[in-house]
Design a protein that fits this description.
Elements: H1 3-35, H2 37-49, H3 52-67, H4 91-100, H5 126-133
Helix pairs in contact: 3-5, 4-5
Length: 135
């Protein structure tokens, strides 16, 4: 065998050994991760025991940012460029104003601009918006 063939064989053999070491070290790390899975399970269980309201409010925040911040402030406790501050809004107010463009009987609007169009497609999202606006 020539020297160049031996060098090539040696390089291939070393690459093969390196690959084996990486594969087996990866398997070893996987076993270590499995040993620490009780910690991961505890974290998942803790997350599962958090109040459901957190998830509901998070979805409400998504709806708010997708549909409301063009007129209302990104911080619902502050007035927006067109719409008023809307934190602490009642569920009745949200339902009527968002879906029908009206107010509950006896409610005095913060602004009388009447620019907000009804958004009946958000009817199913009212509980989520309510949870976000009433932390």
């Amino acid at each position: 065998m020539s020297v160049s063939v031996l060098r090539l064989f040696h390089q291939v053999f070393l690459a093969f050994l390196l690959a084996l070491v990486l594969v087996f070290s990866g398997c070893e790390k996987s076993d270590k991760n499995q040993e620490s899975s009780p910690t991961a399970q505890a974290t998942e269980e803790a997350a599962a025991t958090q109040p459901a309201e957190a998830g509901i409010a998070k979805r409400g925040k998504s709806l708010y940012f997708a549909n409301c911040i063009a007129c209302h402030n990104t911080d619902p406790t502050k007035a927006g460029s067109v719409g008023p501050a809307i934190s602490d809004s009642s569920k009745a107010l949200l339902t009527l104003k968002v879906t029908q463009g009206t107010y509950p009987e006896g409610y005095q609007p913060k602004r009388t601009t009447k620019l907000m169009p009804p958004l009946p497609n958000l009817k199913a999202g009212i509980p989520f918006l309510y949870a976000f606006l009433n932390p």
